[in-house]
Amino acid sequence: MSLNVESPVVSTAPAPQPLRLIDDTGHAVTDNAGDFVLPDPGTLLGLYRQMVVARRFDVQVTALTRQGRLATYPSALGQEACEIAAVASLDPGDWLFPTYRDSIALLTRGVKPEHILASFRGEWHSGYDQYEHRIAPQATPLATQALHAVGLATASKLKQDSTVALTLLGDGATSEGDAHEALNFAAVWQAPVVFVVQNNQFAISVPLDKQMRCRTIADKAIGYGMPGFYVDGNDVAAMYAVTSAAVDRARTGGGPTLVEGLTYRMEAHTNSDDPSRYRAAGDVDVWRRRDPIERLDTYLVSIGALSDQERAGIRDEAEDLAAATRECMMLPVRVDPLELFDHVYADPRAALAEQRAFLAAELAEHAALAGQPPATPSAPTTPSSSTTPAGAHA
């Protein structure tokens, strides 16, 4: 399926109901699918495996946070369909621009758990090699990564290569000025970028109806002059079909697309949040019955594409990953304060070298007062795109 790329001017409103290909009960849907079709069973089985593994990772990391092994962790439980579909739609050479909540997207794209979690336990900011994985650092400030995605996509267009940028945003991020600037610039310059908004209905504690008056976030695409799609974000088949078409459109010169996935944040915003203060437990129960994994499981079983043996094998893979995650998080954090000065400039500046020497002397003095052997200061390192940062330990 490819989208129309003949005109950059778009005036058609997204459908009034979220587009879906598999409903809550696991049955195929054809009445509001438009021109989109169900992906083949092999593709769906691959998406199922990735969601199961990602869910187990997310649950394990949340448990580690509660045990004090991590400073914080923003769970994406219940949002697996949006994130896995987005990653699966990309080619290896494309770039992903995630937020702080998109750890399972990084996992699915091949980043190791210990490198994903390095920043969440204060070990290293972005503990993975961005160039190796084609993933920008997870952005904590809302919507800033959208501007970065548009910048890279515009450079790709100027260089006339086939790279597409995809950025993940939350509904709260679309209320930021940075999001407006990114969407407007992308549309004006027809940048090859896809905006995937995970509408989990809360910007921390602020519900969507307190953020905006528009019918859907996808409707905003009309004003920018780009296609907008309102999709059932718990239907990985629909999310994959729409996002893949949007990526294909961007790659073939059709410009940007806004995809809104309607989903729900099942866990708290982070471990420091109390969601009972702003939402009812009954609302969460409603969304539990719309679980994206159970929905796809039911469909795959109904068409004979998922056996008990295959399901058990996938669960074993997920448990192995959870065990490996626990093991790497039990290792002590090794932090060298002098790493603050690494990777700041490609060519070290004299003033920074002086500050580094001052801190090294102060650290040596403290070590001497504590009766510890003086540490040998590490030499300033040169940034490398081919190695994992020294602070990201297994």
UniProtKB/TrEMBL annotation:
<dbReference type="InterPro" id="IPR050771">
    <property type="entry name" value="Alpha-ketoacid_DH_E1_comp"/>
</dbReference>
<dbReference type="GO" id="GO:0009083">
    <property type="term" value="P:branched-chain amino acid catabolic process"/>
</dbReference>
<dbReference type="InterPro" id="IPR029061">
    <property type="entry name" value="THDP-binding"/>
</dbReference>
<feature type="domain" description="Dehydrogenase E1 component">
    <location>
        <begin position="49"/>
        <end position="319"/>
    </location>
</feature>
<keyword id="KW-0560">Oxidoreductase</keyword>
<dbReference type="InterPro" id="IPR017596">
    <property type="entry name" value="PdhA/BkdA"/>
</dbReference>
<keyword id="KW-0670">Pyruvate</keyword>
<feature type="compositionally biased region" description="Low complexity">
    <location>
        <begin position="378"/>
        <end position="394"/>
    </location>
</feature>
<dbReference type="InterPro" id="IPR001017">
    <property type="entry name" value="DH_E1"/>
</dbReference>
<feature type="region of interest" description="Disordered">
    <location>
        <begin position="369"/>
        <end position="394"/>
    </location>
</feature>
<dbReference type="GO" id="GO:0016624">
    <property type="term" value="F:oxidoreductase activity, acting on the aldehyde or oxo group of donors, disulfide as acceptor"/>
</dbReference>
<dbReference type="Pfam" id="PF00676">
    <property type="entry name" value="E1_dh"/>
</dbReference>
<keyword id="KW-0786">Thiamine pyrophosphate</keyword>
<protein>
    <submittedName>
        <fullName>Pyruvate dehydrogenase (Acetyl-transferring) E1 component subunit alpha</fullName>
    </submittedName>
</protein>
<dbReference type="GO" id="GO:0000287">
    <property type="term" value="F:magnesium ion binding"/>
</dbReference>
